Amino acid sequence: MANEFNQYWAIILGGSSGLGLAAARKLAAHGMNLCIVHRDPGVEMERVNAAFEEIRTSGVQVLTYNADVTREDKRDHILKSIPPQAKIRCLLHSIARGTLKSMLPESGSALSIDDYRITLDSMAYSLYEWVRSISALNLFASDARVLSFTSEGSHRAWKHYGAVSAAKAALEAINRNIALEFAPLGIRANCIQAGTTNTRSLQLIPGSDQLKAWSEARNPFQRLTTPEDVANVVYLLCKDEAAWINGAIIPVDGGAHIC
Description:
This protein is an alpha/beta fold. It has helices spanning 18-29, 45-56, 72-81, 113-136, 162-181, 200-203, 208-218, 227-238, and strands spanning 8-13, 33-38, 62-66, 87-93, 140-150, 187-194, 249-252.
């Protein structure tokens, strides 16, 4: 089982923490080689590098790049560094670079159009840019999976979440069209709607403690989603048996979305 994906690669955008890192660990445990793109300051690199070294103990190849995923020159450099014989089974989009400002703040600056642009560039449009570039270089496997993380915020209104909410809605729309238009190339595209997960990204949202308490109370299992819960579904969607799932938004929340 450890060599299940050993002929394949996954590119993980945002793989140094949270859901992306958990998915990297899970895929590596099943033999998937990894190219992890992340964006972290120097003070975080000791932790980040330790996590990457742990993944390498699985025996897979791991390439890592501390780079801005929205920059075309960085994207081209990264893709050209992947071994030419490699075939990418999975592109996982786990970018959490968004502006958490209120439209009508009690103090400080209000959410601006530039805030929207930056958030949408990182958390939505970059998915299409990477899919298009990988496809143009013929790096995708014949049965490839494009996966991205969305949230209930794509269709719910939360204070301070306006820019990220717009990005998640756009991400889902982009996913649908990738699922339709790239299908002739063997690409399946799906969004994973993760339940409330106690990641650093969640902790940055004002009022996150109340959001966690509300999420636990309404969940049928009375707990939050974990990064490992989500990573397990990333793994399942990469398996041969998941080839007929395409264009879907899949809740991974223990049933919280029905409550």
